[in-house]
């Protein structure tokens, strides 16, 4: 009886799957038509605002029986595959492969993209500047470690624009060949990952040797060669190096997020952005910064972050990077920026883009 029930249920599932596949094919036909149109009008294939609209619409009609987070991932993948029917989107990112940055790229763009990893953040900028890839993805800030200064500094001279933002919840896993903790004699990882999993290691693997590597992906790549070892790395590295996840989420603080910027060519059209980042240089006189920021208060515009960096032109001269909770097309912001420009030495808009979600 029970067996017949499960058979009946599976028959229904098969029928639904058939419909899903048929509908996905129909969807793909429509996307191809859009692709032809975009090509004839010279419109960029990637349309982040439309993708966001699709995800929000899908979320609003979902009854929540199928987990909504997974629903978002499914639609990110559907649109990623759809995009690839129109054009292969190439993305440069800070590598190596199997790190959290690669995971962030896939979370943002889906997996139907061509990925190219680079060893440094400046390398990613150069690649996009030379139009070898459509976009780049670089970390800008971690909720525990703070700002990634190299990314900010690159923006001082680079003509590139911020075209998107994405967040990744950082989870560290213990990856190994062996099946239980008792067999592990050595653990490989990046110093930052060791620091973030210190309590877990002290409790569960107090006597193992710790070997530092240049990245968590490098740590994972060592394990296949060293039977009684493990690595602390991103879940993605388990797939890449054929390892098993012995323990997931071993970080001491679960509130660990990294924010990434998607960088692209200047003038990349972004419709209805809701966040803007600017770079300003302030006159060196009392109250200059206060005066410069007051238009944001006048026009009721929230600033979510201010970061100062040495200008590197003169000692003790600083630049300010400001994240603004408004899109450039918003009237208040346009007016506030006009005022800011009157008082600043210079103002550079680094991008107006769609805010990332946690
Ligand atoms: O609507 C479009 O412009 C499409 O190309 C279709 C589609 C989708 O699959 O829904 C695919 C890629 C774009 O980035 C946005 C949406």
TrEMBL record:
Gene from which the chain derives: pheA
Site location (Essential for prephenate dehydratase activity): 258
PANTHER family per the UniProt record, alphabetical: PREPHENATE DEHYDRATASE P PROTEIN, PREPHENATE DEHYDRATASE-RELATED
Stored Pfam families: ACT, CM_2, PDT
Sequence ranges assigned to domain Chorismate mutase in this UniProt record: 1-90
UniProt source species: Thermospira aquatica
EC number: 4.2.1.51, 5.4.99.5
Taxonomic lineage from the root: Bacteria, Pseudomonadati, Spirochaetota, Spirochaetia, Brevinematales
Annotated protein name in UniProt: Bifunctional chorismate mutase/prephenate dehydratase
Keywords assigned: Amino-acid biosynthesis, Aromatic amino acid biosynthesis, Coiled coil, Cytoplasm, Isomerase, Lyase, Multifunctional enzyme, Phenylalanine biosynthesis
